[in-house]
Predict the 3D structure of the following.
Amino acid sequence: MTQSVVVQVGQCGNQIGCCFWDLALREHAAVNQAVLIDMEEGVVNEILQGPLRDVFDTKQLITDISGSGNNWAVGHKVFGSLYQDQILEKFRKSAEHCDCLQCFFIIHSMGGGTGSGLGTFLLKVLEDEFPEVYRFVTSIYPSGEDDVITSPYNSILAMKELNEHADCVLPIDNQSLFDIISKIDLMVNSGKLGTTVKPKSLVTSSSGALKKQHKKPFDAMNNIVANLLLNLTSSARFEGSLNMDLNEISMNLVPFPQLHYLVSSLTPLYTLTDVNIPPRRLDQMFSDAFSKDHQLLRADPKHSLYLACALMVRGNVQISDLRRNIERLKPSLQFVSWNQEGWKTSLCSVPPVGHSHSLLALANNTCVKPTFMELKERFMRLYKKKAHLHHYLQVEGMEESCFTEAVSSLSALIQEYDQLDATKNMPVQDLPRLSIAM
Amino acid sequence: MSIVTVQLGQCGNQIGFEVFDALLSDSHSSQGLCSMRENEAYQASCKERFFSEEENGVPIARAVLVDMEPKVINQTLSKAAQSGQWKYGQHACFCQKQGSGNNWAYGYSVHGPRHEESIMNIIRKEVEKCDSFSGFFIIMSMAGGTGSGLGAFVTQNLEDQYSNSLKMNQIIWPYGTGEVIVQNYNSILTLSHLYRSSDALLLHENDAIHKICAKLMNIKQISFSDINQVLAHQLGSVFQPTYSAESSFHYRRNPLGIDRHVWPPLSGLPPLSKMSLNKDLHFNTSIANLVILRGKDVQSADVEGFKDPALYTSWLKPVNAFNVWKTQRAFSKYEKSAVLVSNSQFLVKPLDMIVGKAWNMFASKAYIHQYTKFGIEEEDFLDSFTSLEQVVASYCNL
């Protein structure tokens, strides 16, 4: 069995990470029928030695470094060099504990200082030290109304690192998470007769989780991201008739090294208490996965171009259900000419807690372009005026070229997506084949 | 006349289990109209071919299980053990911790050389257990990384080390619409490599079996288990013993006198005349057909229709191209059953489609970096394309 190491950086990253561990334990407790009760923080780590030892590495790297002042340069250059050896040592120890280390999951936000700066610094360290281990990054992108003024600077500087050193990035924005929560609240409070929602089934809930946390403000949103990571790894952890390992995600969804940004959507968001799921309800799950309401990034994949798409299904769903829905949904989606049947699928027998089945869809789609373009615009608005630039330039190792290079890198990426989009409505033509002399 | 089965990857192992299960349960099922003596000979032959005997009487499958991650093999082993009727050998597995990531190059260039010695050793031990060894049956998919890449590597090794033994590959053709995005690349690399080292490729398409489950068997929610069982059933009815031409009850040395989709060496064919491609084709032209009949009325069954020259290419006489094998012993409780194994142009359309899709993708260079990372270069792809275009052309010219 393979292991993954979770690297949580910065305030955002750490909060998400903690939710993740709680839900992971809940999921494995349900499978292993262990009874886990409300425990102290310290004991959690001991539990992790037990049933989850083979699956998740026990040493969480919690960087509790405060005071990056929302400054990418401080996180990346200052804390990077200051703590590099210490952190590298921790990484090495984690790797030693692993029988077969397959993947690093990095969780961080883009808009701040530590998660963004130090988080991306660590990417380079991991690439150099463990070149064969995949680097999956879950990045929280700042929304337009972000209260951190310099978030565009931090994000663009971080993007360059993600472009160059990440294998796969799952961009997520807070607004989408917030919208999902609103939708759930609406459903739960709608008072529709006869519909009651199973509490554990909410994608936002930590009910039944190991630790009783104080309700933190972003808990609900963080649980959504935590569920994303659980579903991503489910097929590697549990059995199924069509397994998908983490290395298969990169292999199938990244056709060119730079184009490794995947839009995720999770369904269902909750389960109603009536037990019988007729096929129509199951099909609804597939339709929902392609609806904007379930996406973790605000984007419009249906009107953009798919390069590749993965469907990771959990629970009592069979290959015929999968095929029926792909056939049904295919006509409304546009795939790039050289990948008309670009679907990667997996079937994992074990559903998430509180559900009979679930679906995680990962799309490599040109719909991420607007997100990046907006980010670039916000960046340029600040940069033209040289606003706040001195905070960065006064950090040793930072120069204006860091900024210009970062913007170039992003522009090049946007251009790749542009070129693909240009092919969108062109008729698909078969290329002339090799002719053979008989 | 024993066959050693090599099960590779998730698909190969899942199917392998169903095949052994089907073979053994048929061997235990009722004899139909044949005599008890015949039935005992049938059972003995089936057992010797596919199983070896353990002291406590539980047959052990003559199989080697190979996968690059442990989950599927563990499941397969325990399902067999749970049946109580048969099991796999204790040391018959080779397993690693991390899969091949759907990457043919990883299966072929990394896992292959790295684990060559260990895997070949396990296979050798299994071959040595056979009193009279006939050949290998290798079960693999084309779409993934282990079955396809490592499968091609292992088959090559088997050709090097056991060149006089039959090597027959059971290949699963993936669904046309995605199980794996790079399935077309993996498929063309697999087929072109197997061309050089395998004696026979038996092909089963997931799409075709799916249709059988849906339309002929009316299964509502079709699972891979259903699909694999249909496949196993088909293979069982091909591989179980039949009378040889001398009509004494012993089995043929080769479980298949004629193989389903054989890739004949080009040098072996007579010079091909230029055929007009507008030839009015009602049938897929065949090179060879084998019909196997089991159960009631086999002696009186009329197979004359299969000898129609219109079915065969002009440079073959039906008498050389058609064979029928019979046994009165029923298969798996069916009063009568028949199976057709065919080497014909039936292959052309699916193969052409896969080559076309792979070619389109290759032209854009998409995903190529994932292969060059592990030593499979663009030239290797081009070689594969060339090989397969030749195969398509050869079959079209029949």
